[in-house]
Amino acid sequence: MSRGRGRPAAGVLAAGWLMLAAWLGGCGPAAGPVPIHYGSDRCAECHMLIVHRRFAAQLLERDGRREKFDDLGCLLQWVAAHGGWGGVQAAWVKDYRTRRWLPVQQAAYVYDPGVASPMGYDLLAFRSRAAAAAVMDRQREPGLVLSFAGLLHRRWQPHLPRPMRTGSG
Questions:
Q1: Is there a smaller number of Cβ atoms within 10 Å at the N or the C end of the chain?
Q2: Sheet holding 144-146, edge to edge
Q3: Is 99 left (phi over 0), alpha (psi -120 to 50) or beta?
Q4: Do you know which Pfam families this protein is assigned to (predicted)?
């Protein structure tokens, strides 16, 4: 049986649409975090060099621009100063222990004034609430374990100047 001349088979059309969708999807920004060049990238908020891997954060704006931060507090301040979370497509923080990227909404956080972060916000990110609580159990100074929502319900201010006591990056 003939399918008729000049009309491509349905499979060919479907494959063409899939290829076009994949090509168009590849034109936008990658959905995940991008590498930070420690020692040369600068924080979008405070403009300091990003050097400490445990405290790094980044976000992807809805318009495709990316911003990198040396401290979670800088990310929070930048978002507040630039219209809030509505303009943010995604954001990530580094797990304090593993140094792996975590989606900002899924991480658990510790406010620990005994561990100075680069800009003095003293916020640490962890993969789970249990991991965060385990760190707090070993601290001498009182702190807080928070969810992402808990972070947003507070106003964060840096506690500088003082020397960092975090070890290497």
A1: N
A2: 123-126, 108-111, 144-146
A3: left
A4: NosL (PF05573)
64, HSE (Cβ side, Cα atoms, 13 Å): 6
Q: Is the peptide bond before 161 cis (omega within 30 degrees of 0)?
A: yes
Report how far Cα 78 is from the mean position of its chain's Cα atoms: 13
> C-alpha angle with apex 114: 111 to 115, nearest 5 degrees?
75
- The neighbouring-strand residues paired with 144 are 111
If you average pLDDT over residues 100-121, what whole number do you get?
93
Lookup result for tokens 């900002």: 104
> What residue ranges in the chain does DSSP mark as E strands?
57-61, 66-69, 88-94, 101-103, 108-111, 123-126, 144-146
pTM: 0.76
Kindly state the tokens that stand for 28: 């936008």
Q: How confident is the model at residue 137 (pLDDT cuts 50, 70, 90)?
A: confident
Q: Which helix (H) or strand (E) holds 80?
A: helix 72-81
Q: Do residues 66 and 56 touch, judged by C-beta distance below 8 A?
A: no
For residue 23, the surrounding DSSP H or E stretch is helix 10-25
What is the pLDDT, as a whole number, of residue 66? Answer: 98
For 92-125, b/e burial (b = at least 16 CB within 10 A) is bbbbbeeeebbebeebbbbbbeebbbbbbbbbbb
